[in-house]
Specification:
Helix 6 packs across helix 11 and helix 12 crosses helix 13. The chain is globular and about 60 Å long. The protein is built from 14 helices and three strands. It folds into two domains: 90 residues, DNA polymerase, domain 1 (Orthogonal Bundle); 191 residues, hpI Integrase, Chain A, CATH 1.10.443.10. It is mainly α and 315 residues long.
Length: 315
């Protein structure tokens, strides 16, 4: 069997999301491009994959190769289970070492600058006549505040429906479809977000002319001055990222949905000693992942170090 045929069989058996299926195709295509043809499975030896690793690392980051390796390994493990391969050839091909850098957050004073910038055009909820790559400002102001006050991912933001925000119970439902772990859970609705999300909900209903509980809450195409530009009627995670790239250029400081998630995690960790609470809000299955998101407090570390006993006989 050839590699592309294995991928087709894998897609048939696995319930992959559209984005995952597309990514598997891109990863398989990269290995095929390296070899110059669609290889037979028995041609995929450990030595060949070591050369493939070397080639990928010459033009891509270790994270990219490890991502490719993880997807191809899943494919080859499936082939082993189906007795199409005797063993996974990636078994003896180690992942590339990845330097672990400090999580990137957004300084709160800079975040306030962005909030002020988006809300300074008189009525912060005014959108009539607004044009340009950052508009409507009121909409993106609510996006920024929601990402910070919840710590959710961009996909979770895009997947929120009108019925997912319970204003009476003060809860937000995060659906399994938008979760990396495929779990559904609820997080508290921050009091600071209630007026903004109520306003957004009212505007969506106003534009629709009806109450549709399953309609997207954060629906950028619904409020854009140029709706004809969109192939889909719903906002995507990519559109969220693209807006953050534009605001980064305008403000000349880096900000992204994931940096806001890191920032939210760091702020929550500063307010509580119970990291399990932070883990539950972020939706991590392993608390070790939560610790990666948390940036240590420099003042607290300095206070701890200066509390050490003085040594006698100083020079």
């Amino acid at each position: 069997m050839q590699l592309e045929a294995l991928l087709a069989l894998y897609r048939k058996h696995q319930l992959l999301q559209s984005a995952s299926s597309t990514h598997y195709g891109a990863v398989v295509a990269s290995l095929g491009a390296f070899m110059g043809f669609d290889p037979e499975l028995d041609q995929l030896t450990t030595d060949l994959l070591l050369e493939y690793r070397k080639a990928i690392l010459q033009r891509c980051s270790p994270v990219t190769f490890n991502n490719y390796r993880r997807h191809l390994s899943a494919l080859f493990n499936f082939a082993v289970r189906k007795k199409l391969m005797s063993e996974n050839p990636f078994k003896c091909v180690k992942p590339a070492p990845v330097p672990r850098r400090k999580p990137k957050t957004v300084a709160l004073d800079y975040l306030q600058e962005i909030i002020d910038f988006l809300g300074k055009s008189g009525d912060k909820f005014e959108c009539v006549g607004e044009q340009g790559p950052l508009t409507p400002k009121w909409f993106w102001l609510i996006v920024v505040k929601t990402l910070y006050y919840t710590g959710i991912r961009r996909k979770q933001l895009a997947e929120l429906r009108l019925d997912d925000v319970d204003f009476k119970g003060k809860l937000i439902r995060l659906r399994a479809e938008s979760s990396k772990t495929k779990n559904e859970w609820h997080i508290p609705l921050n009091e600071a977000l209630i007026p903004d999300l109520l306003y957004l909900r009212e505007r969506v209903i106003e534009r629709l002319g009806r109450v549709d509980s399953e309609h997207q809450l954060f629906c950028y195409p619904l409020f854009s001055q140029r709706p004809h530009r969109f192939k889909r009627k719903e906002m995507t995670g990519e559109q969220v990222t693209n807006w953050f790239k534009r605001i980064t250029k305008v403000m000349d400081k880096k900000i992204s949905p994931h940096r806001l998630r890191h920032t939210a995690a760091t702020e929550m960790a500063r307010k509580t000693k119970n990291i399990r609470l932070v883990q539950e809000i972020l939706g991590h299955t392993d608390v070790r992942t939560t610790f990666i998101y948390i940036e240590p407090e420099m003042d607290e570390m300095r206070k701890l170090m200066t509390s050490m006993s003085d040594l006698s006989n100083a020079i």
